[in-house]
Every structure is written in structure tokens, then in C-alpha cells.
Amino acid sequence: MNKFCHTGFSQIQELYNQHVEQIDSALQHCKETPCTNGMAGEPIPYQLRNDFAVTGIVFLCFFLAVYALKNGKKYLYQHIKSFFRHKERAGLFDDTSNFNIRYTLSLGSISCISAGLFVYDFFSKTDPFLFQIVSHYAILFIYIFCVLLTVTGKALLYQFINWIFFDKEKNKAWISAYFDLLSGISLVLFPLSLLVVYFNLDFHFSKTFVLTAVISFKILLFYKCIRNFFNHFHGILHLILYFCTLEIIPLLFLWKGLIYINNIFILKF
């Protein structure tokens, strides 16, 4: 009886060991063989509102706007009201003759940062491969830096050209008008940037709106340039040369420069 029981338990143990080996072999085969069942998941598309750098820049613009609008309401109102006025010389007690660098820099920085955000959004839609291989933070800050550099370079070029051809009063009036417009357009671009970032505004609509804002900005500069420098008919040729050289060509250089930077990023990374 003991002999037969011992034989039966040996067979059971042998069958159990074979079963364990089969299970281990099946598990090992599953690990080595990739699973081809099911559908591949789609990656989540990039969204501006999920980017911490974009959110931080939006908050910075918001605080700058609050500071300028809270403390500089009178300054901004006087300059907006006097934009369409034309005086040969500023009065001694004229409030608009005072150029407050704090509010101008605050609102001008908002315009440049918003423009950089729009460029960032444009290339994220039209050139997604660039955003897959290059850090988003680097691209965003380089775009904003390029816009700031263009605005600063234009201001210095204005000072140099106007110092050669025009008197001090006209030069001062033009610089003030240019930065007044740059400050004013921030009140349009910043709300639009909020719609683009947080409400996923339609790409074609936002592109058209930004283009309209830029064209309106140039038209107002054209008007101010006529009133300030070339208020006679015989100066129309000089006006076209002046405006194209200092307004149109810098924009073309900026656009070509951004495309060149994108190509460098793609080739390098």
C-alpha cells in the first residue's frame, strides 16, 4: 500500500513540475513577444494653456498691465487724447510733453511679449516638427527676445536718422508718438493673447486679427509721420523712403530672421 501511494505522489509531483515549467515558459514568451493587439493611442496635442512658461509670461503681462493702468491712468489718457493733435512745439505746462518711462516700458513690454506669443503660436501650428525636437522654453524666449530687439533697434535707428535730418522737437514728438502707439496696441494684443492661450481661439481668426492690428498700427504711424515730418506735398517721396526703410524693412528682417533661427534649430537638434 505504501509502495503504491509513494508512486502516486511521485507522478503528481512530476506533473506539477511540468505544469509550472509550462506556465513559466508561457510568461517568458509573452515578455519577449510584443503585443500587437489593440489600437495605438494618439498623443495629446500641444496646448498653450498647459505650458508653464506661457502661463508665467501671461501672469507677468497681467501684473504689468495692472501696474500701468492703476498708476498711470491720467498719463495714458492725456497721451491718447493728444495723439491726433499736432503742435509745432510743446507747451511748458503741457502734460503730454512729459515722457514717463515706467508706464511706457510696462505697456511696451506687454506688446512685445504678446507679439512673441503670437509668433510662438503661429509656428506651433505651422511647424510642429520644430516643437518636437527643441525645448519650448528656448523657442518662446528667443521669439520674445527677437521682437524686443527689433523694437529697441528701431528706436535707436529713429534717433539716429531723425537727429541727422530733423530738429530736436520733431524727433522728441516722433519718439513719444511711436511709444504711445506701442503702448496702446498692448491693450488690444494682450486680451487677444488671453483668448488664444486659454480659450483656444481659432487659428485663422487670431492670425487675421493680429495682422489687422499690425496694419492699423502702421497706418497710424504713417499718419503721425506725415503730420510730424512731411506735412507738405513735396515731401511725399521722402515720406515713402523714410517709412519703407524704418517700418517695412525691419519687419521683413524680423520674419526672415525667425525662419532662419527655426532652420538652425532643426539642423542642430
UniProtKB/TrEMBL annotation:
Keywords: Membrane, Transmembrane, Transmembrane helix. It comes from the Bacteria. The chain crosses the membrane at residues 52-69, 103-123, 129-157, 178-199, 205-223, 235-255. Pfam families: DUF4271. This is DUF4271 domain-containing protein.
